[in-house]
Amino acid sequence: MSIYNAIVIPKICNAILKSYQNYWPRDLLQVYVCSPLDFHAQTMNWDCGYRNMQSMLTSYLNCDSEVRDQLYSTGILTIPTLMDLQKKIENAWFNGFDQIGGMQLDYTLFNTNKWIGATEVVAMLRSCGIKACVADFDFTSRQCDLNTMVQIIWRYFQTRCEKQKNDNFNSFNERSGFVAPLYLQHQGHSRLILGVEKWVNGDVKLLILDPQMRKALQFSQKQGEEANILRQGVGTHGLNSKSKYQIAYLAEISLDYDETDFSKIIVDELRHPRLQYI
Question: In a 10 Å sphere around its CB, with 0-12 CB exposed, 13-18 middle and 19+ buried, how is residue 195 labelled?
């Protein structure tokens, strides 16, 4: 199997914020964006999950001291290669995390072109001692719809970014300024949600980073238009064409489970009675 190095665009969120400074749309009310990360682009048609993990880890290692310490303690000092991530996920399965997901993939990833999803991301992070969670959105169950999911994503960024502003007065707490991106999974592909916009008419639009190579080329060719490239409304770009999504995220509050036992089972944390939003 040939593994190519991904194209990396550093500090993509800084470029996004600069694009708003250069041009603020007339009807745009509010924007919330996650902490800086580096964009790792796809090199093959099956490696989107790994590239998104690499992008997420750049944010964790550079912006969050608590998560960085956990990663350091497990030997992740720099961004792992694709094969290193495969080994890390296999090791998580070996240690009992997400046995159902491991069984579906025959407990083998290394040197294969098997796709990974949100549960594999969460299993690997939890095996490193990081409180990662997954939320399921099944529109066929009629318990939620796409607009519900988008509103939950809005509240995630709104509450954490506002908390970031309030806590920034405390320069001794590095984590207070950290807002993690969201890992968005649907059948056959995954992307990262870097932020949200609210418009005068009430619409909420998502800033979605697609790891596909053509997106990396767009960023390099159209500097200053990063927000336009990422912006996706509910009814556009196929966002409403899927009936099931999973979102992997970092928990902000402590969950009521034993860290070494129940946390090895990956469940829909959104239905946890203490969680009103992700």
Answer: buried
Choose, from 34, 40, 47, 48, the residue flagged as catalytic: 48
Is residue 242 within 8 A of residue 214, CB to CB? The reply is: no
Half-sphere exposure of 67 (CA within 13 A, CB side): 24
pLDDT digits 0-9 by tens, 191-228:
999 999 999 999 999 999 999 877 777 877 777 787 88
48 is catalytic: yes
Residue 272 falls in the annotated catalytic set: no
At 30 the three-state DSSP class reads strand
Cα separation of 93 and 85, whole Å?
13
The model's pLDDT over 85-130, given as tens digits with 9 standing for 90+, comes to: 999 999 999 999 999 999 999 999 999 999 999 999 999 999 999 9
Classify strands 231-232 and 39-40 as parallel, antiparallel or unpaired.
unpaired
- Regarding pTM above 0.85, the answer is yes
